[in-house]
Amino acid sequence: MRRNADGFTLVELVATVAVLAILLSLATPAFGRIAEHSRKTSALHRLTSSLALARISAVRLGIPITACPSHDGRSCRGDSDWSEGWIVYADPQRTSSPLDDSKVLEASDGLGSGIAVLGTVGRQRLRFSPHGWSAGYNQTVRLCSSDGRLLARLIVNNAGRTRTETPPEGTPCSV
């Protein structure tokens, strides 16, 4: 009496692995786009909530509150690159950085690799007045992919309100 062995032959195993490899190679770009979309959405939510905190705090406390890009969570950068993080701080003297650490209301870390967050050139900070306004001109923060595509825009108007825009696919992330 002979028993049939249960299992796979080498040919069946190689064919199965080949089919899996083909399916994974087709699915990998889609997973990359899903991850990029998740990072973009997270960045927009984090930045929008920080700017809302700045505006609400300015109205509630009755003093100017500033949001600016920061690389260390304690001082403002001298440019408009928000990729390494940002801070929100009480700014009654209208200074270019917080006078001390106790003035910082929120410090947000950077987003990591994959997305650059770039503000309007020449506007390094957003200062909200006690009325919630952000005087000057609109601030546009661009979220850019590592390959130079524009993923989204966050626009803060002079009244201090934010809105987001999603550009058409393939739009370059130029100034």
Automatic annotation (TrEMBL):
<keyword id="KW-1003">Cell membrane</keyword>
<dbReference type="GO" id="GO:0015628">
    <property type="term" value="P:protein secretion by the type II secretion system"/>
</dbReference>
<dbReference type="GO" id="GO:0005886">
    <property type="term" value="C:plasma membrane"/>
</dbReference>
<keyword id="KW-0472">Membrane</keyword>
<dbReference type="InterPro" id="IPR045584">
    <property type="entry name" value="Pilin-like"/>
</dbReference>
<dbReference type="InterPro" id="IPR012902">
    <property type="entry name" value="N_methyl_site"/>
</dbReference>
<keyword id="KW-0997">Cell inner membrane</keyword>
<dbReference type="InterPro" id="IPR022346">
    <property type="entry name" value="T2SS_GspH"/>
</dbReference>
<comment type="similarity">
    <text>Belongs to the GSP H family.</text>
</comment>
<dbReference type="GO" id="GO:0015627">
    <property type="term" value="C:type II protein secretion system complex"/>
</dbReference>
<keyword id="KW-1133">Transmembrane helix</keyword>
<keyword id="KW-0812">Transmembrane</keyword>
<dbReference type="Pfam" id="PF12019">
    <property type="entry name" value="GspH"/>
</dbReference>
<keyword id="KW-0488">Methylation</keyword>
<protein>
    <recommendedName>
        <fullName>Type II secretion system protein H</fullName>
    </recommendedName>
</protein>
<dbReference type="Pfam" id="PF07963">
    <property type="entry name" value="N_methyl"/>
</dbReference>
<feature type="domain" description="General secretion pathway GspH">
    <location>
        <begin position="44"/>
        <end position="160"/>
    </location>
</feature>
